[in-house]
Amino acid sequence: MMTIPFFVLTIGLAAILRGHRIWALILWAVALLAIAILFRIHTTSQLGLGL
Amino acid sequence: MTSAMSVKLNALGLLGISLVLMVAFADQIAYGDLPCPLCILQRAGFVAAGLGLALNVRFGPRPSHYAVVILSAMAGGAVSLRQIALHVVPGTGAYGNPFLGLHFYTWAFILFALIVVGSAAMLLFDRQFDEPGKALPPARAGLAIVGLFLLLALGNGVSTLLECGGGFCPDNPNDYLLLKK
């Protein structure tokens, strides 16, 4: 799960190198959404809080 | 500021973010300082911000590319601020080794703030957007930096896969999950 943002962004960077701007922007949006969801899951983990 | 100058500055910024990721990697490999889940998300924030700079390097500067950089840096900054807040709580200690007197998550917050300020400052120069159709073909050096950055993004993905497997990462990782015998 935690690997998703990196691999999606890697594909996005490959799209940039190949000249596909729109695909890079779509993949970036997907990665940012993944970061937000993963942050929500881990935001209280270190203190063991349940908010 | 001309479009060409802006592309050069963006390439320089991308090189700076690459350096940040390399320092984090060096600390991980040399000192066995495995990144925690929030640390991994901060690295992802740097990669996402770098993608916006790479767009400027490859396709020429556009306001939407700077928006990508700013939104990514704000997401990464929120994660690092959360981690700083977690360790402000008495008795929670700190995570990882300090670097030049500050922990990595504190440095991350400072750098994300600098990325936001830098991108906003770049947006002040309207002339770089005057010739979107006449943008020069990207220089080889710029594309090489984007290539290096792609390898670092991939390296972080592989490292995270080794550390956490296909699932969520442990809060205090001691070992690479997939390398355990």
Descriptive report:
The complex is a heterodimer of chains A (51) and B (181). Chain A is mainly α and 51 residues long. Chain A is built from 2 helices and no strands. Helix content of chain B is 68%, strand content 0%. Chain B has 5 helices and no strands. Chain B has helices spanning 3-31, 37-59, 63-88, 104-123, 140-164. Chain B is globular and about 55 Å long. The A-B interface holds A 1-3, 5-7, 9-10, 12-14, 16-17, 19, 21, 24-25, 28, 31-32, 35-36, 38-39, 41-43, 45-47 and B 36-38, 40-41, 43-45, 47-48, 51-52, 54-55, 58-59, 64, 68, 71-72, 75-76, 78-79, 82-83, 86, 89, 92, 143, 146-147, 149-150, 153-154, 156-157, 160-161, 164, 166-169, 171.
Per-chain topology:
The complex is a heterodimer of chains A (51) and B (181).
Chain A: H1 4-17, H2 21-42
Helix pairs in contact in A: 1-2
Chain B: H1 3-31, H2 37-59, H3 63-88, H4 104-123, H5 140-164
Helix pairs in contact in B: 1-2, 1-5, 2-3, 2-4, 2-5, 3-4
Strand composition percent of chain B: under 5%
Query: Tally of extended strands of chain B?
Result: 0
Question: Would you report the number of β strands of chain A?
Answer: 0
Mean pLDDT figure of chain B: 88
Question: Biggest sheet of chain A, open or closed, and with what strands and sense?
Answer: none
Beta content of chain A: under 5%
Separation of the first and last Cα atoms of chain A: 22 Å
Unreliable residue stretches of chain B:
none
Structural class of chain A: mainly alpha
Which structural class is indicated by helix and strand composition of chain B? mainly alpha
Whole-angstrom Rg of chain A? 14 Å
What pattern of helices and strands is seen along the backbone of chain A? HH
Whole-number average pLDDT of chain A? Answer: 88
